[in-house]
Each structure stands twice: as structure tokens, then as C-alpha cells.
Amino acid sequence: MPAVSKGDGMRGLAVFISDIRNCKSKEAEIKRINKELANIRSKFKGDKALDGYSKKKYVCKLLFIFLLGHDIDFGHMEAVNLLSSNKYTEKQIGYLFISVLVNSNSELIRLINNAIKNDLSSRNPTFMCLALHCIANVGSREMAEAFAGEIPRILVAGDTMDSVKQSAALCLLRLYKASPDLVLMGEWTSRVVHLLNDQHMGVVTAAISLITCLSSKNPDEFKTCVSLAVSRLSRIVSSASTDLQDYTYYFVPAPWLSCKLLRLLQCYPPPEDGAVKGRLVECLETILNKAQEPPKSKKVQHSNAKNAILFEAISLIIHYDSEPNLLVRACNQLGQFLQHRETNLRYLALESMCTLASSEFSHEAVKTHIETVINALKTERDVSVRQRAADLLYAMCDRSNAKQIVAEMLSYLETADYSIREEMVLKVAILAEKYAVDYSWYVDTILNLIRIAGDYVSEEVWYRVIQIVINRDDVQGYAAKTVFEALQAPACHENMVKVGGYILGEFGNLIAGDPRSSPLVQFNLLHSKFHLCSVPTRALLLSAYIKFINLFPETKATIQEVLRSDSQIRNSDVELQQRAVEYLKLSSIASTDVLATVLEEMPPFPERESSILAKLKKKKGPGAVSVELEDGKERGELNGGADRGGEAAIAASNASTPSPSSDLLGLRSAAPVGGPAPSAGSLLVDVFSEAGPAASSTRVNDDGFLSSAPPSAASEDPAPPLPESDELLNKFVCKNNGVLFENQLLQIGIKSEYRQNLGRMYLFYGNKTSVQFVSFTTTVSCPGELQSQLNVQTKPVEPLVEGGAQVQQVINIECLTDFVDAPLLNIKFRYGGALQNITLKLPVTINKFFQPTEMAAADFFQRWKQLSQPQQEAQKIFKASHGMDTEVLKAKLLGLGTALLENVDPNPENYVCAGVIQTKIQQVGCLLRLEPNAQAQPGEQMYRLTLRSSKDTVSQRVCDLLAEQF
Amino acid sequence: MIGGLFIYNHKGEVLISRVYRDDIGRNAVDAFRVNVIHARQQVRSPVTNIARTSFFHVKRSNIWLAAVTKQNVNAAMVFEFLYKMCDVMTAYFGKISEENIKNNFVLIYELLDEILDFGYPQNSETGALKTFITQTGIKSQSKEEQSQITSQVTGQIGWRREGIKYRRNELFLDVLESVNLLMSPQGQVLSAHVSGRVVMKSYLSGMPECKFGMNDKIVIDKQGKGGATDEAGKSGGGGGKQSIAIDDCTFHQCVRLSKFDAERSISFIPPDGECELMRYRTTKDIILPFRVIPLVREVGRTKLEVKVVIKSNFKPSLLAQKIEVRIPTPLNTSGVQVICMKGKAKYKASENAIVWKIKRMAGMKESQISAEIELLPTNDKKKWARPPISMNFEVPFAPSGLKVRYLKVFEPKLNYSDHDVIKWVRYIGRSGIYETRC
């Protein structure tokens, strides 16, 4: 808006504005505006035509009123009239009004476009510029449609003035950003690229913005710009600062243009042409050299401009990541900045170094600055800089300096800002896990972490510790000991209690030998924290208690007392109450072997991406942790864990509401033989009659502590049996019920019973989705010679499985003679049109047809000796993979189907079993002896398993099957 | 209860800030300024909730009074208090303006200390307050006076002190009513009610016991129709209506409510000076003093013809005053020509309305205005919403039909009787929101 001067004053406008400013209240202002609006209306309505000056004045007033926040619904016509004026000031006000107040009113748009067109085709550069500015300011689709063809022509025409070219380039950029589909460069491409060679630096600067934007969308078309940009850059860089006159800024030649050129080059890979590349490298070297020169001016603008170019050059070097020499030089340069006075520079240096650290060439160079960075972390006054320092430490960490960095970060954590603590915790947790050489260090670090910054330790972090401890049996003892010690602190964080509860519940037995940490001491320690904890933690502790009952029968009375107390069994929290009631019943009703099965040690977690890493990624967005993803190898050797949700999800997906029948009723009739087929309603629960109560109560808190159901095996490979199916088969050697298979769509539960040589198996197919499965068919086949060994009959299932529903299939099995392979179960169905094809092995193994045989010691040894032929015996010596808990072992042996004979073997440590395998053709007597060396160190415990039977194939097969179980 | 009280000027600067409870922090002052006074959209609700804090405000000219609380208070009570506080301040220093508040801020704090205690409203009777909060500097009071004030303020009749003496026992009674109406263009009443106040100014000696009677339907019906005919219709406008149905009413604290509940008689010992004896509201059988007949015709897109006739509908002997008719004009008005038979009419651009003023008008008369409005064609498709024509006036009767039947004064200790008291009764009916759609 023109200043209020004498000649072109618009006094009325000035008076109006000062009136408005002097208004005492909002009401007064509105009154004044209403009055003015009425005045303008009467003026516009008036019969005599207004001259340009008054028109301009009134349009200005309207504009001012609009900017104050009032609606303006007239005056557009007058503004459009102003566009056709020949006076610059009038035209300018017209354009101003249009670009502020334009609405997509059809008739006016046509008039406006017409006026703009006239101006564009006029020879007057100021008018052309005004029109271009208006197009860019409005930037609407209509504008783009009308002028997208015109502007490139103006841009590349030979006779266009430089200033107009500049405006045209920026206007085109704006239109392209607003509606890229309407701006078609096509034929103009090469001519636009050649604008880089323009004499006028302003044109080049404007054009390069356009080219950068265009080439980021379609790099191939603009490939030619690389060499032009390089030559332009080298001309600028090598020019003396006086050459460019107007474009020299505080002794730096064309800093903005240089930055833009460098940024454009970052859109492309390093140039292939050797000459061009050489020239570019030369340029970059010159820029790096210049950074070393003493500054030509003390002004801050000079150093800012110089550093801007330098940082842009460094990011180009990082982008190319192919010139080790340059990378190292860049790194050194940044190293100098790390100690610079200027905070912004230190920040930028740390930030750039983060990216440098991920390059293989400069990683070592970055590592040399570790002391400085650690210092920055400790002494920097600005939190954002400290944050960058922490990022950099994280990025530069590797096996050689992990211990140092983790220790530094841990010590910093005590004083760290609250805003970055959680992220720091995650980083420490990841680094500790990733570079852990020995896992006791890892456990120490994480427990330290919880102690120092317990509030910021997210669920994922402590989940992860537990995953790792469970998967690594060599640290379990150490972890139990450390946790026990940590818990002895008078005040410890709730997360510590969680970890402690979980680990002691699982591995408390490993430190129970020490009288200082006897079972009762452990329990009392945990229980002393109980009342200070939140409900989820208490629930977890209750689960730990029931596990204690299993691990240490001597604590049973004490724990039952605790469970029975009113504060548990009548707790107002439903979850706690349910757990207390169920655990109490479980401990008092179930026999030791049932307890041992239900409360079996957690199976190892399947390998997956670390959940902490996922969390950090979520926190920082993808890319920030790209460093870790590259060394997947390294992670492979760590015992990665799983998302712990996995197990609990099995239970969760099964029963959406806590079913009342999930109580212990199912447990009492643990093995109903030949009972009537359960009704549909209780199917879900019955399938889990063993794991039922535990699973249903763990579901809510998702701590997946007790569920002994196998981890899900998710795979959608069709036709051939799933790779895991053998493993699945092994899970069912010692038990008859459970979940056979589960993926995102389908869950298959199994319940089976055997008598003599006959078996009946109930398969429950649960549709986990909300969509129905169509043409659902299942077939059971016996491949090869199995056909003659096993007789399998199935009843067909309904072809339609509704969403969330479950169908049942009964399979009758008759064992003709002994067999090795398992029958195959093939399931086909359509889900949302896609055919799903899954093949599994049915868990039918020879041991299912065992009839237990009780016999006295003398009897046993007599028979043992009878079966002394070498082929009748099968023996295996193998390493214990699950620890040697007596109860668990007993439960497994019972699950095998044989009778467990007590007081037979002279060595009470050994287990002896006997049974007869019933087939249609013959009966095969079978004797078993399992000798553990329980005294050995954990990790070196071995078993010797000997089987003798009247048939060699049977001995071998049972031996093989059983060897996988311990 | 009220947690704090703030007074702002029109710019949102705090003039008075008094916090009574700890739950109101300093940021509450700013919260109100930012969210209400400087709000982007004009705030129309008198109650605003910001961050679990309630702000009740009233505006007097350019001054905002805001009561703040975090509790669930009785909103009506808070507003009653705010109005009362405005009355008190007016009684002390006249018009509530920034200037006056700045000049009297010590006094205002003193008053606030007295009329609110820990957020609970206390005695806000101006007469009583004036006995111990004075503007005439420190006046050392004698022991007797002090103890008298104490016993009066804490006693049963806190609003009147003993030992008042007047040479002439006088009593003024004003029945002030405001009539509200919304009428359809065809003359159908869409909603109408009268809210009235009976204001009493008494200069009576001693502790007089007063009894006030009016033509309340319930009382009249109880007494039978015999007694009241001669008094009714003496000064009224419309018909010879004998009794009115009062929808609801509230009384000054001096009225004995137990007696009103039992026998529906209004008896009281009045405070000295002015007080608002009762407030009431009626909705039935309202006398509408004026009828507005609008006629709007659109001639093409750029012209509008408006003709408005007003008819006075009361006894020809009475004169209405200060009549003002406000005819809204469209937002794209570019010119107006007005012709009226009586009074003066003018187009006020700043208010987007034609304002027609008539000084005086007798009953059963008729007057007319016609205007031609020129419009500017606009791009806006929005049609003009045609706001209603509103009207202001003042008439010397009560549009509700309320009549004062008697006001008896008994002073058993001093020897003056009801007949010695000079009594004045005045009826004023004003327009509230008196609108007719067009």
C-alpha cells in the first residue's frame, strides 16, 4: 500500500483508520464501520461515475475493513475495474483486493482472468509482474487452469525482462505446488534447465527453486541440470568475491544461490561423468578449504553465510557417501564446530555428525570425537543441543565403545531433562541389548536403568529384559540373584517389582539354594512390596506367588494364607479377586503334576523385532533408527524376544468375555474320557481346560505369565506342511488338549482322548475375523505307508464358518500297528475371495496309545532284562533344554501315557515308566528309564533316556519323541 | 460460593480485583480477559466456563463485572449479587464508569469487604451500609453509636435503624413495568410478558409496620368481588379489569414471607429511603400499548419499500412518551428516503436502521412512516434475514393491569396514624423488548 504522502494521499483512508484506532470499544468500532460501509455503498451506487482515485480509496477502505475481520460482500466490481486502469497505484490496489478477497465467483473470475491476460500480454514489465504476483498469491485451480500454459512461455521467451522472468519462475513454482497435474513442462523442460546459464543471477536463483521442485518429482527429465549446476557452482565458488557485485553478501559470493545449487544436487546421485564429478569434488574441496580461511569480516552475517554454504556442502557429501576423503574432512570440520562458541553451530554440527556416523567411511572419524560429545551432553546449556548430543552418542555407538557410552548415558540420565528421559531410557536399553557381550552386563544395565529412571522405563523395556532372560538360560540365575538384591533396597520402583516378580516367579529356584535367599525370604521380600503397587503389578505378583507354590512346595501354606486373606479374595478389583480365588483353588485342588503342567516355565519367546526398537521408531518416526536395521546379523545372535502379546493373545482372541465356566470346573474333570461332545457355548473354554483359568486371568493384564499354550505359529504358506508343524507335533506328545495352530484368521484347537488302540479327536476351527469363511473344507490324509498303519475317519464340516464362530470336527482314529509319521490335516477355505490353504500334522503319535502298567520293582527289572537284545533298546543322551524341575518332569512323563513307577530305581533321581502300546494287531510292552544329572551346572544338565520295548521301531520312535520334550 | 470478583475496563485492564478463596489463582484474571473480553467471537452468554472455573459477568456501559468461582454455585444468586453490587455502587458514587471506579477504589474495596465474606453475600442494603461505610472521611464514632450499629446490623431488623424521625411522614410508591412482546407480521402475539417492580421510597418515623395490597387475583377471589370495584380502573388504560394473575414474584427481605404464605398479605417494616419492595411477572391479559403494522415490499433487486403504521391502544386521555421505532435496513442499503407524518425519522447508517422518534402520542391515535430503501446489488446469495422492527416507549399506566389497592402504615409507638402519612403512587410502563416481525 502506498504511503500516505501528499500527492497520492488518500486522506479519507488515513482519517478512517485513525478513527477506527481511536474507538473506545468494539461497539463503537462496529458503528464506525457500518457508517463507512453505508457511505461507500451510496458512493458506489451513485449515478455519477467515480474517478480512479476515489475508487482506489474506497476499495482500500473495504480492504482495511475486511482485514479487521468484517465481511465484505460488495466492491469486487470496482476492484476489477481498477485492474484495467493505467495507473500503477490503482492497478496495484485492484490486484491487492483481488488476491485478498477473491472468491470463486464465476462471472468475476472471468473478468479478472481477462484483466490478467491483458496485463501479461502488455509490454509493461511492472504490469506483468503485478499480474504474475496476483496469480501466485491466489494460486487457485482456476488460475492454474487459465495460465499454466502461458507462464512457461513468458519464462523462456528471449525478450522477457529479467525481473519478469524471476516473477514468472516463482509464480510457476507456486502453481506447480498447488496443482501439479495442471503444470505440464514437457516441451519447456530443456529451456527451463538452461535458465541455469542465465546472465542474471536473480533469474538463476528463482529458476533453481523451480527446478529443484520439479526435479524432485521427475528426476529423469531434469537430469541435464546436474552438469549445469555443477559448472555454475564452480564458477561462483572460484570467483573472487568482487566479481558478482550485487550478489556478494558480506564477502561471500552468492550464498543463497550456492545453497540452492547444492540442494538441487542433493536430488541426484553423484554425477557419472568423470569430468563433472571432478569439478564438483573440486568445488566441495574449495568450500571446505574456505571454511579454514580466516574470516574476512567479523560481522555475524559473513560467518552465517559462509557456514550455510558449508553445511549444505556437507550434507551433499553425506548424501553422496562415496568420497571417503571428503567425508573425513567434513567430519573434522564438524569436529571443530563442536567446540564453537555459537550454540547454533554446535547444534548443527551434532546433527550433521549423526548422519555422518551412519556412513561406513566416516564412522571411525566420528568416533574420535566421543569425548567432546560426552562433554557436550554434560555441560551444554541448551536442552535441544543435549538432545542432539545424545542422538549422536547413540549413532556412534558400536561394540568397541558401547560400555563407555552406555555408562555415560546412564550417569547423565540422573540429571537429564524430563523431556528427553524416556527417549534416553529407550536408547540405553537398545544399546545395552544390541552390544551386549555378556548378558550379565545387560541385566545389570537395565536394572540400573530402572533404578535411576524407573518412571520413564516403558512397558516395552522391561518386557524385553524378561524376554531375553527367558530366552537365555545362562543369565537366568544371575538375573534372579541381581533382581533379588535390587529388591532389597528399601524403596524400589514399581517396574523393578514387576521385573522382580516375574523373574523370581520363573527362576527363583535357581537361587533358592542360598539360605539368604531361601524361598520364604524371596516370597516375603516380594510380598513386602505388594501393598505399594498398582493393580496390574499386584496381579502379576499374585501370578508369581502361584508360581512359587509350584517351585517351592514348602511355601504353599504361607502363600495360601496370603491368597485367602480378605484383602485378596475379597478385593474390590475384579481381576485381583479372580486371580486370588482361582489360584487358591488351583493350589489346593490340583495335584502336583497338574500344577507343574499349568505352571510350567514359560517357553522361549519367538524371535522378532525388538519391541523397544519399534517403540523408538514410533517415537522418532522412521529413519531415525535406520542405523540399527542395517546390522540385522548382529541382532540375530542375540536372543531376541517376541512381542509378549503373542501368548496372551491366544487366550484373548478365544474368549472375548471372561466366561464364568473358565473356572476350575474344567480342571476337575481334566481328562473326561468319552464324555459327551461339549456344547458349543463352552467349547472355547473346554479346549483349554488345562490352561483355562490361568489363561483367562492373564488375558486382562496381558502379562502372559502362566499360559502354557504354545506360541502362535503364524504362517500362510499353502499346501506343504507348515515348517513348524513338526514342532507343533512335539508340543502335543505329552498333552492331549490345546491350541494346535493359530494365525490372523484361524485358530485350531484340539481336544483328544485315547482308549486302547482307539482315539477320538475333536478339532475346533475358530474364525477369528468378522467375515465368514466360504467353502471351508478339511481333509485328513495318511501319506505313504501310514495308510496301512492308521485308520482315520473324519466327518465333513459345514462349508460356511461365520465370523467369530467356531465349528467342530470329530476324527476317529484307529491304530492298526505302530507308526512313525503323523497324518496330515489340510484346511482350505476362502477368506475375502482369497484361497487359504494350510496343511498341518495332526498330533497323533504312537505314545498316545499307551496303556499305563503298574508294576513292582522286581517285576520291572525282570522285564527290563528280558528285553536285552540290542535292537530292542534305544538310548539317547541329550542336553536339558528346559531345566530339571521334578514336578514338571513327572507331569510330562505322565502325559506321555505311561505309568510312572515310584521306588523302582535304586537312584531316587531317576524316573522309571512302563506302559503297553495298544495296536490292533499287537501289543507292544515298553519300559522307560530317564536319568538326569541334576547336580550339574544349569546349562550343562544332561539326560540319559533309555527305552526298551518288544519292537525295535517302537523303541526308536518313542525315544525320538521323548527326547524332544525335556 | 463466589471465589473472587474482578472489575475490568473496556480494554480488559483490571480495575478492581478481590479474591476471596484460595482456589482462584491469578491466572483467572487473564483467563476471563482472553476468553471473554477479547474473544474473537462476541461472547453472549453471561456465564462462561474456562478450565473448570465459572465466570459470571454483567456489563455496565464499558465496565465488566465478573464473579469467579470453582464451585457449583447458584447462578441466580451470583447474578442477584452482581446487580445488587451495581446498585450499591450507584448509590455511593453515581454512574458506574471507569473514571468513577478509579476515583473510588478504596471505597469499593471497603464495600466488597462488607458485602461479601469468604464468598458469601452479606448485607447489601444500601441504607444499612451507608451508616457505617461513609465517604466523608474518618468520622470518629462514639461508643454508643458503634454499639448501635453493631446491634442493628446483627439484629433481627438489619435494614432499619431505630429512632428515625421525620416531620412529614411521606411515602412514594412506583410501579415500574417493562412490557415485552414478539408479534407476527399479521398481528398475532407470539410471546408477551410483563416484568414489573414495585419500588418504594419511604420517609417514615419510628419503626412503622406497613401493609401493601394490590389487585392480586387470589386475594380478590378470596375476598369476593364486592370490595375492590371502586379502586380498580381509576387510573388504568385498557378495560375495567379487576384482578391480575401474577405468575411469580419475589420480595425484599423486609417482607414477612410467613405471613405472605399463610394469608397472602404483604406486610413489612420498610428500610429507610428507597427499596425495591417486590418484583413480579405476568403473562396473561397484558395490555399492549402499541400495535405496529409493517408493510415491506421489494421492488426489483435494488429497491425496497417499507411502510410502518403504529397505533396507540390506551385511553385517549393518557400520553405516551419517548416513542422510538427502529426499522432495520438491509446490509447493502445504499440510500434511504423517509416520509413520516409525525415526529422525526432518520436513517442511521452506523446502526443499519431507520430510527423514527415521536415525543408524545395520545391514546387511540395512529401514525405512519414510509421509506424507500435503495439497495446495492451484491454477489452474496444470502438473503436478508429481515430482523424485527423494535419499539421503545413509556406510558403512564401498568400494562399488566396491576393496581395498588392500599398501603397502610401502623406505628404503634409514635402517635401518627395511617391518615397522616402522605402517599404517592405512580405507574410507569416501559417497553422491554417490544418487537414486531416484518
UniProtKB/TrEMBL annotation, chain B:
Top-level taxonomic group: Eukaryota
Entry keywords, A to Z: Cell membrane, Coated pit, Endocytosis, Lipid-binding, Membrane, Protein transport, Transport
Pfam families in UniProt: Adap_comp_sub (PF00928), Clat_adaptor_s (PF01217)
Domain MHD, residue spans: 168-437
Keyword Transport: yes
InterPro entries xref list: Adaptor_comp_med_subunit, AP2_Mu_C_sf, AP2_Mu_N, AP_mu_sigma_su, Clathrin_mu, Clathrin_mu_CS, Longin-like_dom_sf, MHD
Keyword Cytoplasm: no
Annotated binding of a 1,2-diacyl-sn-glycero-3-phospho-(1D-myo-inositol-3,4,5-trisphosphate), by residue: K344, K346, K348, K357, K359
Protein's cellular compartments: Cell membrane; Membrane, Coated pit
GO cellular component: clathrin adaptor complex; clathrin-coated pit; plasma membrane
Coiled-coil residue windows: none
Membrane topology: Peripheral membrane protein
Chief location bin: membrane
Annotated GO biological process: endocytosis; intracellular protein transport
Family classification: Belongs to the adaptor complexes medium subunit family.
Protein name: MHD domain-containing protein
